[in-house]
Amino acid sequence: MDPSEVEFLAEKEVVKIIPNFSLDKIYLIGGDLGPFNPGLPVDVPVWLALNLKQRQKCRIVPPEWMDVEKLEEIRELERKEDTFTPVPSPYYMELTKLLLNHASDNIPKADEIRTLVKDIWDTRIAKLRLSADSFISQQEAHAKLDNLTLMEINTTRSFLLDTLNCMYKLRSNLQPGSSGGKAQDHQ
Amino acid sequence: MPCERKPMRYGHSEGHTDVCFDDAGKYIVTCGSDGDVRIWESLDDDDPKSINVGEKVYSLALKNGKLVTAASNNTVQIHTFPEGDPDGILTRFTTNATHITYNRSGSRVAAGSSDFMVKVVEMYDSSQQKTLRGHTAPILSVTFDPKDEFLASASCDGSVAVWKIEEQTQVTSWPLLQKSNDVINAKSLCRLAWQPKLLAVPVETTVQLYQRDSWAQVGTLSDDLGTQAINVVAWSPCGKFLAAGSIGGLLTVWDVESKLCVERQKHEKGYTVCGLAWHPSGGQIAYTDTEGCLGVLDGLSSSSSSSSTTASSTTTKVSLWSYMKTPASYDDLFDDDDDRPMDEGISEGARSPAKNPGDEDDDDDLIPATGRARNRSAFLDDENSLDTGSLKQGLDKFVDDDDAGSAIVPPAAVAAPLRPVYDGPMPTPPQKAFQPGSTPAHLMHRFMMWNSVGIVRGYNDDQDNAIDVEFHDTAVHHAMHLTNSLGHTVADLSQEAVLLACPGTDELASKLQCLHFSSWDTNKEWMVDLPKGEDVQALCLGQGWAAAATSALILRLFSIGGVQRELFSLPGPVVCIAGHGEQLLVVYHRGTGFDGEQALGVQLLQFGQKRRQVIHGEPLPLSRKSHLSWLGFTAEGTPCFIDSEGVVRLLNRSLGNMWTPVCNTRDNCKGKSDHYWMVGVHENPQQLRCIPCKGSRYPPTLPRPAVAVLPFKLPLCQTTTEKGQMEEQYWRSVLLHNHYGFLSSSGYEIDEEGQSQAQKEQQELLMKMFALSCKLEREFRSVELAELMTQNVVTLAIRYASRSHRMALAQRLSDLALEKANQLQGEEPQEEEEEEPLQYTRRNTGSGLGRSGSAGGQNRVTNVLDSMMSSSKKPTALLSSSGSTGKLNKTPFLKPLAPRPKTKVQHNSVYVRHKSGFQLWLEDNRRIILADNPDLEETDVIKEAIGRFRTLSADDRLTWTERAKGQSGDVADMKKRKRGEEESRGDKNGQSEADETSAKKKKPVDTSAKLSAFAFNKN
């Protein structure tokens, strides 16, 4: 799966905007949106929010978790725990990226938030690598990881699966090879 | 006892303070948490002498030129006075001393400490100490018995104890106070005070008096206004008065004998009073608060008392005499209630009229000293113990004692010590004028206006004095940034203009500035100077006009282009004004409110074609002890206001213009100090748009606050039950759809779809309630509900009743239905006229020419053409409005419904759009034509009909045309009825009916026939 596909999925998340135009309810396949009243917050999917923002038709209200204090708490917890802690949103990384890239003027302390989310991400990816490492080195057959987000799984999936395949091949080739060697010895 | 509260001044940094006078009363001496003792020659002394005695000073005492202080280094130190040289350490504790005091002669000092001990030390030999142990918590305060035999102490363990000093034993102890673990946590400092016979103990909001020797409680002094715990008490030097200072900053003086409160003053900021001292002459009280301020009450009584025993009895008499003569003191009436947000400087001008100038002068000579000197001294130094239990006797005794029975106070005065203080209802400071939707003017960054059109922000800091105007809907206008060189303080914003005003200064007159951005010429701005001395206090914008209320009690109207229009006088100082469309709402002070209430009056004026006053200055019903905090109109034009208790009230036009509470925003608050700041009210959809403010009454400009939406909720009873809920929903729906009636009656376009939907919803609710009460066997109630229903729904109700075998009910309902049907017919002629405008506008919208409302109600001259042009010019606006004219009201602040003068519409629509006389004729005669030629096609029928119509005489044709005009109002009605008829028909197919219902059902069938018959008759 491509990261852009994950981002596409993330764009379905709902975010609050404050429109500066007026429009009646719009009826889309995915559901009804609006009505849009200038100055009154309304819930829309991220893709629409970004589109409107780019056209300067709205202000985006950052999600509740996109707040320096809350993210700091999460970061501390993430650093303290060995396992993965629950994240504020299943698309936290994607949303942060999208919203900060397009609407950083509507989000107070955008830079701090960017750093914090990156910290959380790095911590989690490091954990992920660590657990993959121990998974392989201990030659386990099963492993269970909770609270991983799609994007995180996505970063490691292709590499990990290929590696495991490769290793499996090497291992399974080793056996016939060695037994073959033996057989040769016998002959 | 009129006295003057001098303005307070800063003495120390904030924290605990204490105060005393020197022996001669020449100096005021204070100490505070900054570790300094300051010696003030008077309150106005700008350069008080400072002595540093430690890091913090907890208490001080001064006598015979020796200043004793309790400092944070756990010692009790002596300094010489007034030089301030250190003179050794009197005693030490293991922690700091909390309170120290001299005995009367100044030979001993008692000190209470946080280490639970009380020490009594001889001044001249500090090795002679007596330690009093027994308290189990830090000592709050200590006081000597004036005769040096006893000592009283209060402690955090909740007890007040009396000790015999020589034996170091506890004589008695009362568990009076709330327990706490430290002095700083104690609710009250509980400073005790001892007058020869009475020990005063502040307990909560009262002062309890205990008698020496018997240790019985002989009385309680209390004050109705004192709602907070009393911190300190002090006896006047004469021993007749007791002063107390409370946590809430209330200073009270009682005449102990009569137990009457003779003086009441409030700390100007309401800080906790923690130090209190009488001037040795008794004419002055100095007090300090926990913020380090020093204040003085002056002119309490006229001459010295205890210092000299000769002729001093007159003192009290004179002072009593003087307050008997003076009118009731109004001084304290105007104390600010400190929790008001808007009362900064509310009524500084309202100071007491009652300060008696002659007071200082009418001293000793007024009443010559008589032989009562002895009496006086007896009173002060009496050795006889009194052990009567009852206060009355006790007091009587200590007043006239053994001598001659001549009371100090003449009997007449005793009988009615003449209400020295006015203790009736207290006038409330009138609230200042404000702009609804603005935050207080003293803020550097503030909202000058936040309404449904946009936001006006004012910045007034070092770098910038500017105004930002921002529109919610960028289609109205782009954002503006103005430099505020004139210093505008009030603003309003509408779809057409920004209105600003500044108060006048010495040189410049008050100005009104209007940025008329929707003007079509190049001049987008005008300005008006007000007459000298007249300041704009409130302003508002309507549709095509602006209004400003001024300090001269004049309301000035301007056209939006700057033409001065009418002006009229207001009955009182304005509080705020609001405009919408052609309505102007004015709230002003009707008079003085009492006991925290405001007395506001309201006027609602209607401009436009029929100018009239709708509300004629009736009182504005606010919640108890609250003030107005927002005033305005809903987007649909119904007046609405909110008071400081958060109750939203809406004008109920169908109930004689009464105000109905529709919501309490405080119910939605989580915290006690949270509030909602209103920015707009909408009736359709039912929304209260406001900004949640955590811990404050108004929001800061940054971070940008987000608007929240609150629902309406009528405060009906038992809304948890199903019945209550439905009742609430029903009445809310009725109330919030009142605006349809108003809008149509004042010639506005209305949303018919929404109206019929609302009616449907109401009828559905009625039906549900009907079913519920049927289920509960409440037949009478069912009939009551049925009375509210329309006729069609009554038929449904009848069916419901008969199906659930309630024949009696069904019978009653059928009577009711009959009555309703008759009524309907009776009303029809009036309805015809009333519904006219409604009908025309319906036609108009039905024509598919949606008008773009964005132009915000410029009066158009020719509607149809104009709207076509404007819609083609503004395709986006058209998209949102013409796509669903029915939804116009959902975005009402965007598109305020343009007033549509009836006459103009008539010209355009009646002839062009209306059913012609021929069509009417056709409707009536179609059946005949069809009967004659049963196999004709529709077009042929019309052809045939045209032929026949032409054959009619000219007069006949005219009558038909006339009818078409007159009857047009009924069309909507007829349609409705037809719909109902169809419904009932559909139902009829399903089942066999009780006889009486079928009779009912016929009714709607032939109403239209009746109607036309009626119309015919008229012609």
TrEMBL record, chain A:
Span of domain GINS subunit: 65-165
Localization: Nucleus
Record-linked InterPro entries: GINS_A, GINS_bundle-like_dom_sf, GINS_Psf2, PSF2_N
GO cellular component: CMG complex; GINS complex
Pfam families: PSF2_N, Sld5
Keywords of this entry: DNA replication, Nucleus
Residues of the DNA replication complex GINS protein PSF2 N-terminal domain: 2-61
Domain of life: Eukaryota
Database matches in SUPFAM superfamilies: GINS helical bundle-like (SSF158573), PriA/YqbF domain (SSF160059)
Gene Ontology biological process: DNA replication; double-strand break repair via break-induced replication
Family: Belongs to the GINS2/PSF2 family.
Subunit structure: Component of the GINS complex.
Function recorded in the entry: Required for correct functioning of the GINS complex, a complex that plays an essential role in the initiation of DNA replication, and progression of DNA replication forks. GINS complex is a core component of CDC45-MCM-GINS (CMG) helicase, the molecular machine that unwinds template DNA during replication, and around which the replisome is built.
Name this polypeptide is given: DNA replication complex GINS protein PSF2
Lineage: Eukaryota, Metazoa, Chordata, Craniata, Vertebrata
UniProtKB/TrEMBL annotation, chain B:
Predominant place of localization: nucleus
GO cellular component, one term: nuclear replication fork
Chain intervals with Basic and acidic residues compositional bias: 979-990
GO terms under biological process: DNA repair; DNA-templated DNA replication; mitotic cell cycle
Entry-linked Gene3D superfamilies: High mobility group box domain, YVTN repeat-like/Quinoprotein amine dehydrogenase
Residues covered by the HMG box domain: 910-983
Keywords associated with the record: DNA-binding, Nucleus, Repeat, WD repeat
Entry-linked PROSITE patterns: WD_REPEATS_2, WD_REPEATS_REGION
One Pfam match: Mcl1_mid
UniProt subcellular location: Nucleus, Nucleoplasm
Function statement: Core replisome component that acts as a replication initiation factor. Binds directly to the CMG complex and functions as a hub to recruit additional proteins to the replication fork.
Name this polypeptide is given: WD repeat and HMG-box DNA-binding protein 1
Organism encoding this protein: Oncorhynchus kisutch
Highest classification ranks of the organism: Eukaryota, Metazoa, Chordata, Craniata, Vertebrata
